[in-house]
Input
Amino acid sequence: MRIDAHHHLWTLARGDYGWLTPHLQPIYRDFTLADLAPHLAAARIEGTILVQAAPTEAETLFMLEIAASAETVRGVVGWTDFDASDAEARIEAMAAHDLLVGLRPKVQDIPDNDWLLGPTLAPLLAAMTRHKLVFDALVLPRHLSRLLPVVDRHPDLQFVLDHFGKPALSTGEIDVWRRDVALLAERDNVVCKLSGLVTEAKPDWEPADLRGAVEHVIGCFGPRRMLWGSDWPVVDLAGGYAKWMAAAETLLADLSPDERAGVFGGTAARIYLSSRGRRPC
Output
């Protein structure tokens, strides 16, 4: 089964997408599963992981409602307030939803660069571990060195590095990113999501502009610890679903058929679903 391990859906009238403004005209509208369906069909994708786009529990419940009525959506990576005084109880409550497979605090938007190192995070990650929830790490390159000790302190918690950790492909300043990604790859409880690269590249990007980063991650993590996601509809800001899928297939062309099948579905099924005790594919 092919799985898109990272996409969003949103309804503007919900009012909790503070980052989504008319300035982002190509994606400033509602996006539904009906809009996504033609892309999935063209790419031969049968299942998806729906990922939070708003820092509210209300949006997570909105996504869970969609997943409950749509066979296509195999799991939801949601959000809860990790800084709330009752954050552990919130995680426990969220985990009661069978289709919730992970949580994603939006670390990239948190003003404190050392937030990941705060003492209050440990019991929350322990709660996630108990409930077999995945920690999707939406971070920037400057956070990678802070993520390392967190990963080491929680060896039984599965971490997914979203968007390759957002290397600065548009400027080519990726040496520190390369170093820290290689260090993260030494930890068995981290996998890397091949997603979001095109919005970090220059506007007229070609697959060659992404090759260095992709080959570095393949060399560090190996294809068995990589999973592909569209980042739709955000990807519409940088060429769209079909162009990104074609680029990914080109960049992974030298892998074996089994390795490509893992990146395009097998790893997502293992990390988010089967090994988490969630709905099998």
Notes: The mean pLDDT is 96. The longest helix spans residues 257-273. The first strand starts at residue 3 and ends at 7. The CA atoms of residues 170 and 202 lie 5 Å apart.
